[in-house]
Design brief:
39% of the residues lie in helices and 23% in strands. The chain is of the alpha+beta class. The protein is elongated. Strand 16 and strand 17 form a beta hairpin. Among the domains are: 170 residues, 3-Layer(aba) Sandwich (Rossmann fold), CATH 3.40.50; 66 residues, Thrombin, subunit H (Beta Barrel). 22% of the residues are buried. It has a five-stranded parallel β-sheet with strand order 2-1-3-4-7, with helices on both faces. The protein contains eight helices and 28 strands.
Length: 541
């Protein structure tokens, strides 16, 4: 059996390098390569010469090789192509030398090709788009023929055009020796696969873009952090230099203050000597007194003098002590006030920090009086459990010992009960613990203070209990009351009952009235009769 020759090119496009034929040739080549292309396989090869060469007695070797290695010849028929010696040589070589007239396809793009349908032959008198001198002897019947004279615009020469697509479909079917229906199905399948591949490609590109953006953001962040660290280091060095200058200035002031204190001590000693001198004068005069009455008068006179001098001395000492303390604090710490023990005068620490004021603003210092949290708050509470409540610009927050807020800035933080405080933000309520952490979201219409380890939340007109972890432990009721004796009264549909601390209904919600439990009993009312029940809901005396 003779082995079938495998061609390098599926088709050779022969055309005149005019505007009409060239645009048709480019569109035809592109469409044939793309149409019904098997997935992940290369497109068919189409030979289309782009060189514009002068005709000669012999075909160029490249053209001959292209014709030899092509299975089909597509001739783009128009008058200028028919008159082209070069195109004529290509057709002549195909028909006379290669003898492949059965694979010769005429693609009519312009001018005239006329057929005598009665005789089923070409009417050469009316035909000017074909080279008569070359083809007349070969075309004894109507040849393979495609009409593209109507495809004058780019949109008409596009695969989205149904008529053009049909022509490409039929050509591809002939090239691949399949039916047009089969090729059409393959095109639909290829289109779907290509769309899917395009979607996957877009997804991968988007994903890689996000990854690239993420890396870029991370790199930028690292760069910013490095720059910030550099700037911070520079700022620290500058701040340290300023601090050293400030300490030197303060040191000079402290020396002056110590000198002043020494002078004050000398002044105290001088006052003491004055009083001692008065005592000596008093004793001398009493010794020289003539009688007892005169001695008493002298004693009385000096007693008044000494008491007055002592009073002046004590008052001056207090003034000097106050002046000494205030001056030292202002010189050393630059503060107006530090919270101290009233008796020992030592800095009063809570969780290692004490409150302080500067220019009417509150902050915190350590045991040495060094400012740890800057004085910038309108109000500040003492530290407890590592956090403190502060107010700034009518907003409230809990801060840690570095001054960093552990909560958002809130409209209100209420008093802590059982280590829990209700909070308010944007007209919604929630709870935080005494470590400054939210235990519920701030989403309720209202919350009630904790009592007995449980708080009440309200959503619309319904109420429920939450525990200290913020977990809702009961269903929603019309009304609920604080736990008492391990039981809480609840109301639903105007009836009362009781739940335990796990939120379970222990006493059915059937009573028209009820009081809270006390000493294991509660008073209830049913059908107009009032009586006591125990924690199991049983009637007792």
């Amino acid at each position: 059996m003779k082995k079938r020759f495998k061609y390098k090119h599926k088709a050779f496009i022969s055309y005149k390098h005019s505007n009409i034929s060239r645009t048709q040739a480019i569109a035809l080549e592109s469409s044939l390569k793309r149409y019904a292309k098997p997935f992940l396989k290369p497109p068919i090869s189409i030979f289309r010469d782009e060189k514009q060469m002068v005709a000669s007695n012999n075909l160029d070797k490249l053209i001959k090789d292209g014709l030899k290695s092509s299975e089909y010849l597509l001739f783009l028929a128009e008058k200028s192509a028919a008159e082209s010696v070069w195109v004529q040589d290509e057709i002549k070589y195909w028909c006379d030398d290669l003898k492949r007239l059965d694979k010769f396809i005429i693609v009519h793009v312009a001018d005239t090709i006329d057929f005598n349908m009665d005789k089923k032959i070409l009417d050469w008198k009316k035909t000017n788009a074909l080279p008569k001198n070359v083809l007349e002897k070969h075309l004894k019947t109507i040849p393979l023929f495609i009409d593209l004279t109507w495809a004058k615009t780019e949109n008409q020469r596009d695969l989205n055009n149904i008529q053009y697509k049909g022509i490409i479909n039929n050509l591809t079917a002939r090239f691949r020796n399949l039916t047009p229906e089969k090729i059409n199905d393959e095109e639909i399948l290829a289109h779907r696969k290509n769309n899917r591949l395009a979607q996957i490609t877009i997804f991968v590109i988007v994903l890689l873009s996000f990854v690239a953006i993420g890396f870029a953001i991370y790199a930028k962040k690292q760069e910013r952090e490095a720059n910030a660290s550099k700037m911070l280091t520079h700022a620290y060095v500058q701040q340290l230099e300023e601090l050293m200058d400030d300490l030197e200035t303060k040191n000079e002031k402290i020396k002056e203050q110590m000198k002043k204190l020494e002078e004050l001590e000398n002044e105290k000693e001088s006052k003491k000597l004055e009083i001692e001198k008065l005592e000596e004068e008093k004793n001398k005069e009493i010794k020289n007194a003539k009688n007892e009455i005169e001695a008493r008068e002298i004693l009385k006179k000096y007693k008044i003098k000494i008491e007055k001098e002592n009073e002046i001395r004590e008052k001056r000492i207090q003034e000097l002590e106050k002046e000494k303390t205030e001056d030292v604090e202002k010189i050393l710490y630059g503060l107006d006030w530090i919270e101290k023990d009233l008796e020992t005068k030592e800095i009063l620490l809570f969780d290692g920090l004490a409150r302080a004021k500067r220019n009417s603003k509150w902050g915190y210092v350590n045991k040495k009086g060094i400012v740890i949290i800057d004085c910038k708050f309108d109000k500040a509470e003492r530290f407890k459990n590592g956090v403190a409540l502060v107010e700034k610009n009518t907003r409230f927050a809990m801060i840690d010992k570095l001054g960093k807020p552990t909560t958002d800035w809130l409209d209100r933080i209420y008093r802590f009960v059982d280590g829990i405080s209700k909070v308010k933000k944007d007209k919604k309520y929630g709870f935080i613990n005494d470590k400054g952490k939210l235990i519920t979201k701030i989403k309720y219409n209202y919350t009630y203070e904790f009592s007995g380890g449980f708080g009440i939340i309200r959503k619309g007109r319904k109420h429920a209990f939450v525990n200290k972890k913020g977990k809702q432990i009961s269903k929603w009721y019309d009304n609920i009351f604080n736990f008492s004796d391990g039981m809480a009264k609840v109301q639903k549909n105007k009836k009362f009952g009781f739940i335990n601390e796990k939120g379970r209904v222990i006493v059915p919600i059937i009573y028209s009235g009820a009081t809270s439990f006390k000493n294991g009993k509660a008073k209830v009312k049913a059908l107009g009769i009032t009586f006591f029940i125990n924690k199991k809901g049983k009637k007792v005396k």
